[in-house]
């Protein structure tokens, strides 16, 4: 059953005549009549009978008419969606954001991107790297924005967006706040809020152990908001990525000797054809003028 046959059938139903339907469809009458006859063969019965000078639907014709009308509407809707997709009107873009990557810096880019490309409709969801990569593989995401601290499997390709330094986050009045920058040795013995979800946590712990530095954790949490709240409440300092800090009441100092940083990556599936919206997103986010980190 072809869409053209359905259109000819509906034209005959509207006009009650093969000749007028052919004129309306800008096709020869024999071609239109043949297409309708072929449709009748496919559905197994006559669709029209003659009443006087007018063709009217048979019982079978009346039965299938709503379904055939819906087929035409569906095809028109599909064409419209495809056209909007190509022209970036109502074009969907699905992003995954690793939970430990703060939204503030990404949001600044998305604001600019939206003003430049208002027809791209963006959905953002957060999750662990494993969960986001799984959704990428299943085609449920166009990109995942992930930390480069963990290796990316060969099945995926990635672009580095920016480097994010780790800083020391302090409550107001903390003794370390007098320092313009903080060495790892400076935190020896200071009360510490342990950010369990940090992908760089083990690396920082290993550096501390190797240097004989004691990190005494007074509080531990996987939640970013709890870590910030406990630092603000005076339970200790924390190591955090510079762009993950949301509270304006916290003080931060660059971490030096050693400096620690992570790359933030845009990841998708190797070999998969990117949608027009995804290609444009990648072009613009790679060219975006990221502001330097606080204290950098």
TrEMBL record:
Keyword entries, A-Z: DNA-binding, Transcription, Transcription regulation
InterPro entries per UniProt: LysR_HTH_N (IPR000847), LysR_subst-bd (IPR005119), WH-like_DNA-bd_sf (IPR036388), WH_DNA-bd_sf (IPR036390)
PROSITE patterns in UniProt: HTH_LYSR (PS50931)
GO cellular component terms, A-Z: protein-DNA complex
CDD domains to which the protein is assigned, alphabetical: PBP2_LTTR_substrate
Database matches in Gene3D superfamilies: 3.40.190.290, Winged helix-like DNA-binding domain superfamily/Winged helix DNA-binding domain
Signal peptide extent: none
Domain HTH lysR-type span(s) in chain numbering: 1-58
Pfam families in UniProt: HTH_1 (PF00126), LysR_substrate (PF03466)
Any one GO molecular function term: DNA-binding transcription factor activity
Membership in a protein family: Belongs to the LysR transcriptional regulatory family.
Name by which UniProt lists this protein: LysR family transcriptional regulator
Organism: Ramlibacter cellulosilyticus
């Amino acid at each position: 059953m072809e869409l053209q046959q359905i259109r000819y059938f509906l034209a005959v139903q509207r006009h009650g005549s093969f000749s007028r339907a052919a004129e309306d469809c800008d096709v020869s009458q024999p071609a239109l009549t043949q297409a309708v006859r072929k449709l009748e063969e496919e559905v197994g019965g006559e669709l029209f009978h003659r009443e006087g000078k007018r063709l009217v639907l048979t019982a079978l014709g009346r039965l299938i008419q709503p379904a055939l009308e819906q087929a035409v509407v569906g095809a028109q809707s599909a064409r419209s969606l495809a056209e909007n997709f190509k022209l970036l009107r109502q074009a969907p873009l699905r992003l995954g954001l690793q939970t430990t990557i703060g939204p503030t810096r990404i949001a600044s880019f998305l604001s600019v991107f939206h003003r430049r490309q208002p027809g791209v409709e963006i959905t953002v969801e957060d999750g662990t790297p494993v969960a986001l990569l799984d959704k990428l593989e299943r085609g449920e995401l166009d990109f995942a924005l992930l930390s480069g601290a963990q290796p990316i499997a060969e099945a995926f390709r990635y672009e580095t967006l920016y480097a994010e330094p780790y800083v020391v986050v302090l409550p107001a009045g903390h003794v370390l706040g007098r320092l313009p920058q903080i060495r790892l040795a400076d935190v020896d013995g200071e009360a510490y809020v342990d950010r369990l979800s940090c992908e760089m946590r083990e690396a920082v712990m290993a550096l501390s152990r190797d240097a004989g530095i004691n990190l005494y954790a007074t509080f531990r949490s996987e939640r970013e908001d709890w870590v910030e709240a406990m630092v603000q409440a005076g339970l200790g300092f924390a190591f955090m990525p510079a762009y993950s800090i949301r509270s304006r009441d916290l003080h931060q100092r660059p971490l030096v000797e050693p400096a620690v940083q992570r790359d933030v990556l845009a990841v998708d599936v190797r070999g998969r054809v990117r949608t027009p919206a995804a290609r444009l997103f990648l072009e613009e986010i790679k060219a975006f003028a990221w502001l330097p980190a606080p204290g950098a």
